[in-house]
Amino acid sequence: MPNGVRMRDGRWLAIDEWGDPDGTPVVVLHGTPGCRSGGVPQDLVAARPGVRFIAYDRPGYGDSDRGPGRRVAHAARDVAAVADALKLGRFAVLGRSGGAPHALACAALLPNRVRRTAAMMSLAPPDAKGLRWFDGMAESNVEEFALALTDPLDFAERISARAASIRKDPAQLLVSIRDGLTDSDRRIIAQPAISEMLLRTFREALRSSAYGWIDDDLALLSNWGFDPASITRPVLLWHGAQDTFSPVGHFEWLAERIPRVRPVLNPEAGHFSALEALPDVLDWLAPRAAG
Asked: Tens digit of pLDDT for each residue in 257-271?
């Protein structure tokens, strides 16, 4: 297996895979900030022997080169290149948190290759008509996104400073978002295996620079480059009603517009509850591997 792919524009995308090499391919799109090693806990990989998990660092994260000015839609181009490098035909896509809109891009723009898509805790597009985009959102997220919209240079400087602090102590990221954590979030991230995965992911994601994080936020806040209503593939939209990082109004907006959507709303779940929902989501994505 190659450890990366050279794109036509010269960029390097770092990729990795786990699980059954002959299993159902599931391309995993990590959160924000994140990297290829942080999408699915290792115990879950071991529990799904019929699944081939594939992940890559989005541009600017980990070992992947930056792609300045990228849009959410560009994830489809990158995923297609990864799939070509691994000689994949059709595959499923799983995106959580900041990776969820990028997973929807694959569903919209790669209809002949994507079998099914699961988007967990997704934001809606910033131009979502009728949606009050910041309603119900944690103050830490509102401040981050508002600064990106009003003063991109100051935003980039602040994210770079936060990234430097997180490289020294990855737990600083969880401290900085504590205002948005629910009781269920705190319970989940207190589990040693989950905590270790998250801290390792944050450190690796920001090891070289903060560009991935900066460019993710700017992409999520600008025109995505596709319309969720144009998606023709089946989509599982999973969300926690208590989530304050991706408020439930975003879920409701997407659920009303994606044609072949299967909306699942957990009334008691917060943002990190998506990690506990992954087994059921994978059963839907790769049903022949279930059980």
From this structure: 999 999 999 999 999
User: pLDDT value at position 16?
Assistant: 94
How far is Cα 263 from Cα 203, in angstroms, rounded to an integer? 33
Q: DSSP strand E in the chain: where?
A: 4-6, 12-19, 24-29, 51-56, 91-96, 114-120, 235-240, 261-266
CB 36 within 8 A of CB 5: no
Task: Tell me the C-alpha to C-alpha distance, in Å, between residue 91 and each of 16, 51, 123, 278.
Answer: 15, 11, 23, 17
Give the gyration radius of the chain's Cα atoms: 17
Q: State the amino acid at position 157 in one-letter form.
A: E
- Is residue 60 within 8 A of residue 38, CB to CB? The reply is no
- Whole-number pLDDT of residue 289: 44
| pLDDT (average), residues 12-23 | 94
pTM recorded for the entire structure = 0.95
